[in-house]
Amino acid sequence: MKSPKSISRRDALKLFSTFGASAFLSACGASIASPAGRKNSVGRVVVVGGGFGGATAAKYLKIADPKLEVTLIEPQKRYYTCPFTNLYLGGLREFNSLGHGYDELRDKYGVTVIHQKAADVDPEGHRLKLEDGTEVKWDRLILSPGIDIRWGALEGYDREAAQKAPHAWQAGPQTHLLKEQLEAMPENGTFILVAPENPYRCPPGPYERVSMVANYCREHKPKAKILLLDAKDNFSKQGLFMQGWKENYGDMIEWVGLSNDGKVIRVDADKLEVETEFGTIHKADVLNVVPPQKAGFIADRAGVTDESGWVPIEPETFRSQKHEHIYVIGDATQAAPMPKSGFVANNQAKVTARAIVADLRGEDPMPGTWANTCYSVIAPDYGITVANVFEVHDGELREVPGSGGVSPLEVDPTFRRQEARYAAAWYAGIAQDTWGTKPQS
Ligand SMILES: Cc1cc2nc3c(=O)[nH]c(=O)nc-3n(C[C@H](O)[C@H](O)[C@H](O)COP(=O)(O)OP(=O)(O)OC[C@H]3O[C@@H](n4cnc5c(N)ncnc54)[C@H](O)[C@@H]3O)c2cc1C
Question: What is the rounded radius of gyration, in angstroms, for the C-alpha atoms of the chain?
Answer without folding.
Answer: 22
